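User: Structure please.
Assistant: Input sequence and predicted structure:
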Amino acid sequence: MGRKLRRSRNDKVIFGVCGGIAQFFGISSNLVRVLFFILPSNVIIYMLLALFLTEEMV
């Protein structure tokens, strides 16, 4: 079964969206957080991802 984009349970500050994206792409979650901070429509994108991404299973 392939990889799926999911919210992180371990690496989260608010909802785990940035941690999940970082795990999916194999990069640092801090880098993803910085990118979300500097992008213009970051709040809308983050909230949509928080609503539609499922949390990873343990």
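The chain has one domain: 1-58.
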